[in-house]
Amino acid sequence: MRVGVLVSGRGSNLQALINAYNEGKIKGEIALVISDNPQAYAIERCKRHGIEYAVVERREFKSKLEFERRMVELLKEKGVELVVLAGFMRVLSGEFLKAFPMRVINIHPSLIPAFQGLHAQRQALEYGAKLTGCTVHFVSEELDNGPVIVQACVPVLPQDTEESLSQRILEFEHKILPQAVKWISEGRVEVEGRKVVVKGAIYGTLPVN
Ligand code: GAR
């Protein structure tokens, strides 16, 4: 499967995907990375690994629609079949999603539906949650919502800061995002309403296989 990855910043989740492809864990390839931020460190990762990338900045376009159309055009040109939002900090419209029906996924640093939106880790700390985690889900028009593909659970420790908690969650993001892309690439993921069924997956604290 040809995958397109949308990023806005550091790109550590992109790196986890690159590593999984390089290790032969996922079939197919990253056909294109699009960054909406020309300063994103994710771009350095593309250069280092010889991955094609494009910078598409929102301010270059009159409307959100035109901005998104440009991204769709680039992704389609590269034959992308699955779009992965890996720290892409914009909400996509229904128009974009229609171009890739049930083929846009996102990684979010909480157990959705808890702590949606920005600063999910800070929200978990401020709420006093004792468990949080991360989620890979299909993207719907609602922010940080849509059918859940895989989640991992992480404890919130008494001494945690936003940074220490984010780091603990991130380690699991780097496991579940490649896992979800692998499953979809192998054609094992079926969606029935809100419920996602992964054929042959073994469910535990961290689903595998
Ligand atoms: C990750 O923690 C990701 O879950 C989060 O941004 C970070 C990006 O890190 N995404 C969201 O909060 C989306 N609502 P990365 O650039 O190192 O992958």
UniProtKB/TrEMBL annotation:
Question: Among its keywords, does the record have Transcription?
Answer: no
The pathway noted for it is: Purine metabolism; IMP biosynthesis via de novo pathway; N(2)-formyl-N(1)-(5-phospho-D-ribosyl)glycinamide from N(1)-(5-phospho-D-ribosyl)glycinamide (10-formyl THF route): step 1/1
Site for Raises pKa of active site His, residues: 144
What GO MF annotations does this protein's record show?
A: phosphoribosylglycinamide formyltransferase activity
- Catalytic function, reaction form: N(1)-(5-phospho-beta-D-ribosyl)glycinamide + (6R)-10-formyltetrahydrofolate = N(2)-formyl-N(1)-(5-phospho-beta-D-ribosyl)glycinamide + (6S)-5,6,7,8-tetrahydrofolate + H(+)
Note the NCBIfam families from the entry. PurN
Q: Name one GO cellular component term.
A: cytosol
CDD domains given for it? FMT_core_GART
The protein here is known as Phosphoribosylglycinamide formyltransferase
What role does this protein play? Catalyzes the transfer of a formyl group from 10-formyltetrahydrofolate to 5-phospho-ribosyl-glycinamide (GAR), producing 5-phospho-ribosyl-N-formylglycinamide (FGAR) and tetrahydrofolate.
What residues does (6R)-10-formyltetrahydrofolate bind to?
A: 64, 106
Q: Which EC number applies?
A: 2.1.2.2
The EC category is: transferase
What are the GO BP annotations of this UniProt entry? 'de novo' IMP biosynthetic process
The species is Thermocrinis ruber
Active site positions, chain numbering: 108
Q: Entry's InterPro entries?
A: cNMP-bd_dom (IPR000595), Formyl_transf_N (IPR002376), Formyl_transf_N_sf (IPR036477), GART (IPR004607), GART_AS (IPR001555)
Ranges of residues in domain Cyclic nucleotide-binding: 1-65
Q: Spell out the Pfam families in the cross-references.
A: Formyl_trans_N (PF00551)
Keywords attached to this Swiss-Prot or TrEMBL record, sorted alphabetically, are: Purine biosynthesis, Transferase
Respond yes or no to whether keyword Cytoplasm is given for this record: no
